[in-house]
UniProtKB/TrEMBL annotation:
KW Transport (keyword) present: no
Annotated Pfam families: Acyltransferase, HAD
UniProt-listed SUPFAM superfamilies: Glycerol-3-phosphate (1)-acyltransferase, HAD-like
NCBIfam families, sorted: HAD-SF-IB (TIGR01488), HAD-SF-IB-hyp1 (TIGR01490)
Protein name in UniProt: HAD-IB family hydrolase
Location of the Phospholipid/glycerol acyltransferase domain: 306-420
GO BP field: phosphatidic acid biosynthetic process
PANTHER family, A to Z: 1-ACYL-SN-GLYCEROL-3-PHOSPHATE ACYLTRANSFERASE, PHOSPHOLIPID_GLYCEROL ACYLTRANSFERASE DOMAIN-CONTAINING PROTEIN
Keyword set, alphabetical order: Acyltransferase, Hydrolase, Transferase
Listed GO MF terms: 1-acylglycerol-3-phosphate O-acyltransferase activity; hydrolase activity
Superkingdom classification of source: Bacteria
UniProt keyword annotation of Hydrolase present: yes
């Protein structure tokens, strides 16, 4: 079954909180296993001994060969004995940002949002702990979590479980108990999972949907007539990606050099920049195997100069904006980016403004100088979140871009970048080939704005990004 068809089916069905959607975590909402990241982190920090690791591996193998797979979970939890609850919470949040956020399946995110639009109760049901499930649930706006709860005494983990390890039938029991306690009609509710152990969990719902299921679950789905949801797995880095990334870096530099030579020959830096930047960005994207699918491209040219604001999840975003804006623009970045090697060549051409947010006086002076450049015909590219986000959900927008637009009397043009993080995640170094979707929204007139209005206007503009990402224009 296609995810788009499923979403259409959900939106054509009944509304209301008497219907629930239960989502498994590992392999369903996220690609892979969140526990793997915890184990690697603890090994790297010396928090898991060799004996504990050996017992965990042997138990996991035994589970694959027909033994009790919950023993691996019990051993993993017992290895946490003596850990501070606060430290585990911090670790869960850190690993979410560093590792797990980028593994959330885009299709699963879209399905969750479809249920939320319909007013359904959305529940994350998993054998994982709250340290793993909590950040993912918060990111997706899921209010209810059924998970393996760990016993904590005086802020310290005891290495024991409260109640049952939610694997197999205990997970199904937890779902049925939740339905009874919350007046949920399980017969009309949805279940999503990928594991062979989740047959009982899915069978508890009236609308089970295996997602990228294992062999045994797929066989059960075929037997029961359950619609299988096939999703696109995350792109993997390979030789093409590595070679393409190296070629892209070379193409970027070659384009910049060509622009510099032209500027020197003509004794016109601006002319050189206007040739070098689009040449460099186009070459980098093409050599990396990245294609842009642009909606609303005419809005790039409707009102120049302007403040072009974009959501920011990937290091590809400035290159995308450069290819899109092409000429007569510069950028704004945080002060520490001045020392980023990747910024050196671009800085020579664009002459961006670096703002030290810890120094309000310097920030005001820099923004005033930038306002003068805007009035002279230079557009501005800025990412108002201030840093790359670990997930596609836009972070809070800072007000600097909006103040600049007001002072210079130019419009704001939102540029929504949909999936750059799938091709180059926030901490990744290799670009995967693929298509990035970009939507340039209509320019927003700032002529009637006042400083007092910004507390309302800034969240409203951010919401345009959220709405566009959720309902991409055809």
């Amino acid at each position: 079954m296609n995810p788009d068809d499923l979403i259409a089916e959900i939106e054509a069905g009944p509304r209301g909180p008497h219907i629930a959607a239960f989502f498994d975590l590992d392999g369903t909402l996220v690609h892979g296993f969140t526990a793997t990241h915890i184990l690697r982190d603890q090994l790297r920090r010396g928090q898991v001994g060799a004996g504990d690791l050996a017992r965990l591996v042997l138990t996991a193998v035994d589970g694959e060969l027909g033994g009790d797979p919950t023993r691996a979970g019990d051993l993993g939890i017992s290895a946490l004995r003596g850990h501070l609850e606060d430290a585990m919470t911090e670790m869960g949040e850190r690993l979410f940002v560093q590792k797990i956020a980028g593994t959330i399946r885009p299709q699963a995110r879209a399905i969750v949002k479809a249920h939320q639009r319909m007013g359904h109760v959305v529940v994350l049901a998993s054998a994982a702990t709250r340290f793993q499930t909590g950040p993912v649930a918060r990111e997706l706006g899921i209010d209810h979590i059924l998970c393996t709860e760990l016993e904590i005494e005086d802020g310290v983990l005891t290495g024991r479980v409260v109640g049952s390890f939610l694997w197999g039938e205990p997970k199904a029991q937890a779902v049925r108990r939740f339905a009874r306690e919350n007046d949920v009609d399980l017969g009309q509710s949805y279940g999503y999972a990928n594991g062979d152990e989740d047959v009982a969990f899915l069978a508890s719902t009236g609308r089970p949907h295996p997602i990228a299921p294992g062999r045994a679950l797929r066989a059960t789905a075929d037997l029961q007539g359950w619609p299988v949801l096939d999703v696109v797995e995350p792109l993997r880095r390979g030789v093409r990606s590595v070679l393409g990334t190296a070629a892209a870096a070379g193409g970027l530099n070659a384009g910049l050099v060509a622009g510099a030579v032209l500027g020197a020959v003509r004794r016109d830096k601006r002319a050189g920049t206007n040739v070098g930047i689009p040449l460099a960005c186009d070459a980098a994207l093409a050599l990396a195997g990245v294609r842009l699918d642009i909606t609303g491209e005419e809005n790039v040219w409707k009102a120049r100069p302007a403040i072009f604001i974009g959501n920011h999840q990937s290091s590809l975003d400035p290159v995308i904006m450069g290819s899109l804006l092409r000429r007569d623009f510069t950028g704004v970045s945080k002060a520490e980016a001045r020392f980023d090697p990747r910024m050196v060549a671009a800085s020579l051409f664009l002459d961006p403004v670096f703002i030290d947010r810890s120094n309000s006086g310097q920030s005001r002076e820099a923004l005033d100088a930038l306002t003068d450049r805007i009035r002279s015909g230079t557009s501005i590219m800025i990412f108002p979140e201030g840093t790359r986000m670990p997930t596609p959900e836009p972070g809070p927008f800072k007000k600097g871009a909006f103040h600049m637009a007001m002072q210079a009397g130019v419009p704001i043009v939102p540029v929504v970048i949909r999936n750059a993080g799938q091709l180059l995640a926030p901490r990744a170094t290799v670009v995967r080939p693929g298509t990035i979707e970009v939507c340039v929204l209509d320019p927003i007139d700032t002529g009637e704005w006042t400083a007092e209005d910004l507390n309302t206007i800034v969240p409203e503009v951010r919401q345009l990004f959220v709405d566009t990402l959720e309902k991409w224009p055809s």
